[in-house]
Specification:
Elements: H1 2-15, H2 23-30, E1 33-40, E2 43-50, H3 55-75, H4 81-103
Antiparallel strand pairs: 1-2
Amino acid sequence: MALIYNWWSWYVRLAHPKTRLEAITSRPLLLAGVTRLTEHAGKSRLLVTLTHAASDQIKTMIANVRKGLDTVLAIVPRLTKTARWKALMHYIIDKIIAARKQNQPRLPR
């Protein structure tokens, strides 16, 4: 269970790097959609239908996940499987640090 929780935590931090979200609230939020895989002209596409009341928040979080994965996929051909995970973790950590810097109050001079 701990391994699953840890990977879920990383996924949620990729979706929402500004703050931690509890698993008990984030799972129903991010799993409240129906997804269908479509293929056309050699391209695969996921269509997500959201069934949760907070659909705008969920769309933003899914867009964050997609942006992170696209960023890592852009450099994937040069990386080994282990290095891909490392690149994704670095991306998430960089986003968390950037969000913390934005949230810190500025000290008066």
